[in-house]
Amino acid sequence: MEVKSMAAMEKGADLEDFTFEIAEPGPNECIIKVETCGVCYSDIHLLNDDWKLSKFPLVPGHEIIGKIIRIGSEVQNHKVTDRVGVGWQRISCLTCKECLAGNENYCQVNFQTTAGKYYGGFASHINVDSRFTFSIPKKLDSKGAAPLLCAGAAVFSGLRAAGMTSGQEIGVLGLGGLGHLAVQFASKLGNKVTVFEYMKERTELAYELGATEVIVTSEGIPKNLENPLSILINTVNKPIDLRSYMRLLKPKGTMNLLASIPMIEIPYSSIVYQQKRIMGSVIAGRSEIVEMLQIAERYNIEAYIEDYHLDEVNVAIDALKNAKLKYRAVITM
Ligand SMILES: [Zn+2]
Ligand SMILES: [Zn+2]
Fold it and tell me: How far is the CA of 171 from the centre of ligand 2 (A)?
């Protein structure tokens, strides 16, 4: 069938109309009629070929929600008309120890939804592996839920991996697409959340999302906190003052760097004398994505969005690139 999409023809280029054919679904595949797709900073990395895995023409988009219109003969977990979501990961080997432990995101056979030979979600339709498509709970709105598939999964898994339970002091560094979801998950699961945000005008939003305290970092990072943090999750894509932030953790506290930041210098004394940890994590395994979506429905967690039509995708990408978005951009078809 014919698919209409927006694609970049070469590295760094604007997206333009691009039509291609997709085959009938293979045994485990399904074809989704895309309803909406979030715009993630990873799409910009792919368009710039920052990770040396992009192939052009490149159709970005990996926060996809839509309805299944065709399924392969072996598909058991979904049926035609189901509303499903697709995130960053297209498939894993499903047989290695990491896959069997539910850590498919750390499998060595890890194909991305949009990279290499695959086309992503800025398109009318997408052919995906049904084993990496997730039912979207009824109460969630498609546009508000689309960013959960990558941004939501990444922060939820990142917080869990750093040891989030409830009743903890948790810091969220940055209040963008990732951060505004991290604040919601951490606060609604019963934690006291401190937001560290550069822009003072975002203070109100932080409180609205569930923060108990907001520190405007353009006015300085405090030397210490009355209640030091168990976990600090970084959602900022730029270099951060790691040494200062590590001071705000309690002994044995964990910093999850999460977002892709350049080379870091390790603050040795925090790690050795206070047994603090610095970790990273990337997206989420399938079981965590299912759990995250259930929690999102139960606690009414959705992304705050700015809506663009597929024709306006370049405007949305520019806005994200230049930090002009107030919320998460989503593209509707
Ligand atoms: Zn993403
Ligand atoms: Zn595997």
Answer: 32
DSSP letter assigned to residue 83? E
> What separation in Å is there between the alpha carbon of 112 and the centre of ligand 2?
14
Name the CATH topology of 2-149+283-332.
Quinone Oxidoreductase; Chain A, domain 1 (3.90.180)
Separation of alpha carbons 19 and 59, rounded Å: 10
**Residue 116 CA, ligand 1 centroid: distance in Å:** 16
Tell me the CA–centroid distance for residue 63 and ligand 1, in Å: 7
Q: What gap in Å lies between CA 215 and CA 195, rounded to an integer?
A: 6
Give the residue extent of every domain in the chain.
2-149+283-332, 153-279
Q: How far is the CA of 40 from the centre of ligand 1 (A)?
A: 5
Q: What class, spelled out in words, does domain 153-279 have in CATH?
A: alpha beta
Mean pLDDT of the residues in the chain: 95
Say yes or no: ipTM exceeds 0.90: yes
| Over residues 224-229, mean pLDDT | 95
Share of the chain above pLDDT 90, in %: 88
The DSSP result for 232-243, as a single string, is: EEE--SS---HH
Helix (H) / strand (E) containing 172: strand 169-173
